[in-house]
Amino acid sequence: MKNKVALITGGSKGIGYGIAKALLEQDVHVAITSRSEAAANTAASELNALGLNARALGVQADVRDFESQQKAVKQILTEFKQIDIVIANAGLGHFASIEDLTLQQWQETIDTNLTGVFYTIKTTLDALKNSKGYFITISSLAGTNFFAKGSAYNASKFGLTGFTQSVMLDLRQYGVKVSTIMPGSVSTYFNGNSPDGKDAWKIQIEDIGELVVDLIKMNPRTLPSKIEVRPTMPPTK
């Protein structure tokens, strides 16, 4: 994995940050994107301060904007000359009954969680074909398990899971591997959560990072295309 280059959307915090750190520890250079240039640069500075052999680059980009993603990919290729791994991680959630869910919340959820991933693969496809790389999406157990007040989020993640599996079939002929990871409860700031000691039972961001590393290291003849991940011992209700 030494000197490979990874692009991680939404990499300034949470799962994306955990993946970035895990890849850096494997000597993979990482470019992390965020809608906030300051957040991207701050996270990259924190990662570079770890003193590892690989380097982190912060890039401003909005996954909902195709031209923004094109610009980010161009910047990364100028800096590193290649892209070997793409982690489509950026996502958000709006949770409300269908009576209360607004048009804006629906559109923002679909644009970020589904269309944003479409833009991510479209803008990196040539680079991944050149490197015979790996495209990984971060879906959710909500992409197979529906729940009340989850119509927008369920729709986006059910769609993302299906989208990724279809892309896997399209791209394997080029030597590009495609997988989707579907986590359950992860200890992040997602949806207003504040990680603390009470979150110890949840999946930790470094666990997802470890899983990504394991996927990339797997013998290329074998492809785990859809991986469900859940806490071992959630609290009893």
TrEMBL record:
GO terms for biological process: monocarboxylic acid metabolic process. Residues 4-187 form the Ketoreductase domain. InterPro entries: KR_dom, NAD(P)-bd_dom_sf, Sc_DH/Rdtase_CS, SDR, SDR_fam. PROSITE patterns: ADH_SHORT (PS00061). Gene3D superfamilies: NAD(P)-binding Rossmann-like Domain (3.40.50.720). PANTHER family: 3-OXOACYL-(ACYL-CARRIER-PROTEIN) REDUCTASE, 3-OXOACYL-[ACYL-CARRIER-PROTEIN] REDUCTASE FABG. Belongs to the short-chain dehydrogenases/reductases (SDR) family. This is Short-chain dehydrogenase. It comes from Algibacter mikhailovii.
